[in-house]
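task queued by scheduler; priority normal; single chain, no ligands, no partner chains; default sampling; output format set to structure tokens
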Amino acid sequence: MASRRQRAARADPGAQLAEYRGKRDFSRTAEPAGGAARSSPPGRGLQFVIQKHAATHLHFDLRLELDGVMKSWAVPRGPSADPADKRLAMQVEDHPLEYNTFEGTIPKGEYGGGTVMLWDRGTYTADEAGPRADPEQVLRAGYLAGRLRVTFRGERMRGAWTLVRTDSGGKPKWLLIKHRDEHARRGGDLAAEHGTSVATGRTMVEITTARDRVWRSGRGTAEDVPPLPVGDVIRPMLPQAVRKLPAERFVYEAWPGGERLLADAVPGAAALLDERGRDRSAAFPELADALARLAERTGTPFVLDGEVAGAGQGARLIVLDLLLRGSESLLARGWRDRRRVLESLFERRRVPGVRLTPAGADADALLQRAAREGWSGIFGRDPAAPYRPGKRTAEWVRLAIPARYR
């Protein structure tokens, strides 16, 4: 039986948006405040959307229309079409229906600051609603009981699913589980398989750099845009270990041997992301600050690939490559071109704790230096090869220091 508070909310649907409104300063953000809660036009069906959101942590926001608002859950790992995967879904505040079409960026410093992608959309139905039943009444009862059995008709979410509540604390925990039907697939990790917007076809990086829809007040500036969520869409290229350098004409560079990180910076803000996309900025705050200042001085966002040597205040970022500068992706360009743009970024600019890895054509001289300076070894690169995210190829190799150099 519904509580007095729940009955009151249905009597005054706009009250369901009170928490949503209370978390936002609408003088600073142009997110929709939402009027009185409303429903989709008759015959359209109940809406659902999933928005991929790179805020403090990357997650997927599942939203289901019910009682004129969007009931919402944050799903950290996103949906899976494998019934064996039980994905955690944290219930969050109701959102207005106007939120359903948003794709863009929320400025840093504001609630939910980060990039938002419209990852899926469509309609959904209540599986337990008979031919004469009111679907919303069935869904409302299931929601209050902590078990929603629904069928999605989206572009990526298809078939029957269950949301089941496992904890009814301050932020109730639910599980999102795929039913065994014709749309179920073993290992079907939908979140990993689809990395573009269903509305625009853009990646998270493209949405961020476009800056065509930024939810801000008139006081906002370009510097409010949060760092690119590059750790979600780009994985570091991997060197192939060798015992002998290739006979081809390669170029060589130092292999420091530290923690591999991608540095993602915009003017005034930067993030250091490890190989799994986790934010490591808190471990190296001086390096993150130095890169944020570099982006501010140049007025240019960029993404670097490098290794961190040392720890604490003595940590140094040794930069190996440049993947993005401004809105331009350098991934398809050869290493020699990427190195030239990288050197121009740092030209006559001192960045505390950050330096480019030494590079040259003489492997023997670089190995001798590696032994003197305590590097792990050297890299060899095909100067014409593109950057291949997440791939390990013979175009980039690494050689540990041979015994004769020690």
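post-processing summary
- The chain has nine helices and 20 strands.
- Residues 1-13, 211-228 have pLDDT under 50 and may be disordered.
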